[in-house]
Design a protein that fits this description.
2 copies of one chain form a homodimer. Chain A has 9 helices and 14 strands. Chain A is of the alpha/beta class. At the A-B interface, β7, β8, β9, β10 and β11 of A face β7, β8, β9, β10 and β11 of B. Chains A, B: This is Trans-1,2-dihydrobenzene-1,2-diol dehydrogenase.
Chain lengths: 296, 296
């Protein structure tokens, strides 16, 4: 039986998430309804994506008994209240990152989900890409030795957008880009806990972070070095340095390419993981890769 | 008339420097003598590179009146005393990096050179590569906008070597690899002074640095992010992120490849700067590029 999705908010990321769902088996994933604050936007979104129902309020979506799980694609400042709304209506939720703006908010959401016995996940889509799974396997197999360094850079000129630049909209480049570099380090080092975390970066006059360089120091000389900035564009690759080789992936937050180099032989193996196209064109690069987090 | 070179020490880097000199016009650069502590090593080095004279002590080289300039390729701990020896014998010097182990030593060498009115330079070869000159031109022309980020990574498994691992031999990975990332940032940001410098890294039980992540914060949201490690190998590229494009070079400390990407058009221009071969095979990658610092 198909999982019945509800889509909360008709913005760009919701658009792309529905594009991604459309590439999956329709007997497994079916979008039943969309909700936005504007009836017009909601209706247009439903029309474009051929969604049966459109609502002009999130409360209506929460009250729709046909929905199993709600995808929350609204702006950051609404994640707390919307997560609570849907959980309180016994809906499972997949909430765009950042799920909350601080630990206190996050704990509140998690406690409620636990109390209600509902599925509740932050949509860190990178973690579900086949390449991430492959990296976990390579690291576990130690075929290129032991991990020493994880490095990720994510710089795009997004500080021009209000929802990134303005503190009152839950802005800050760490929430938009920096978190991707952090999740990469956490994936590479798995259960290991850093013995120190250092951050050095800039704040804008509006009081949001524009970019930073982060160091996570782990025991045994291991480290993660993470760079993000909302001001200009960089190559945005990530690498894992191991004692007997290295792994390089790009674009690292939604990777389709991986290179694994064996230091001793100099051999580099190339891996390609192409993504399907959707009928409706997505806004963001490799956005049909959002399908992987829905398949979980 | 040819510049008459003396070579101080018969190690790998001296070997490579002489290979590089051999690719230059012999009427402009001529190696007259080599000196090492062992007569046998000195003689073999002279034979291999067809150098007229070989000495079994640095003092003999210093006393050779036919020498205009001495290349000092000895281990780090000897740079101070050897620089002073040659300057005191009125020889110009080109000394391998690090020229000294601390600022006090460096000031001593520089003062002596100034007093004697002699040429005295640290052999930071990267700075003389044609690609570095090209980067300076691109930055000055602002053809891809204003510089925002400089990023360089230099990781090679060199902590296995005594002269890197042992403090009493002037070891430490900053001296061997980290300094290359720092000179890259200094080149990119030219006369600008960082408003803060942060370093987070590891020390080995022997008390030398094994690797670190360095942040230089400059005014107006600009930053340099520098990573080095002596434990494993990474791709070791450097990038300059500008408001309207980016520059990528590799291998960044001795580059033969450059890519310049214009953000607006998506166009990437490729530049290749091949290096000549020498008759005797060098030890290090792209080592004939050492010729550029001799040509200065």
């Amino acid at each position: 039986m198909a999982l019945h999705w509800g889509i909360c908010s008709a913005g760009k990321i919701s658009h792309d998430f529905v594009c991604a769902l459309s590439t999956l088996d329709p007997t497994l994933h079916s979008v039943m309804a969309v909700a936005a604050r504007s009836a017009e936007r909601s209706r247009k979104f439903a029309e474009l994506h051929q969604i049966p129902k459109s609502y002009a309020s999130y409360e209506e979506l929460a009250s729709d008994d046909s929905i199993d799980i709600v995808y929350i694609g609204s702006i950051n400042t609404e994640h707390l209240s919307l997560s609570k709304l849907f959980l309180n209506h016994n809906k499972n939720i997949l909430c765009e990152k950042p799920m909350a703006l601080n630990v206190k908010q996050l704990t509140e959401i998690q406690s409620l989900a636990k109390e209600k016995n509902l599925f509740c996940m932050e949509a860190v889509w990178s973690q579900f890409f086949p390449i991430y799974q492959k990296i976990r396997e390579i690291i576990a197999s130690r075929e290129i030795g032991e991990v020493q360094i994880a490095q990720a850079t994510f710089c795009l000129p997004i500080l021009t957008k209000d929802h990134v630049a303005m503190k009152e909209l839950g802005g800050g480049v760490m929430y938009s880009l920096g978190m991707y570099t952090a999740q990469f380090a956490m994936m590479v080092f798995g259960d290991e806990t850093p013995k120190s975390v250092s951050v050095s970066g800039h704040l804008t006059p509006e009081g949001v972070d524009s970019g930073a360089n982060i160091t996570l120091l782990y025991p045994n000389n291991k480290m993660a070095t993470l760079v993000y900035s909302g001001i200009c564009r960089m190559s945005n690759v990530a690498e894992v340095g191991c004692t007997e080789g290295k792994i390089k992936i790009y674009p690292f937050w939604c990777p389709t390419h991986m290179e694994v180099t064996h230091t001793k032989t100099g051999r580099t193996d190339q891996f390609q993981f192409p993504l399907p196209d959707s009928n409706v064109k997505p806004f963001y690069d490799n956005a049909t890769g959002l399908r992987h987090e829905a398949e979980l």
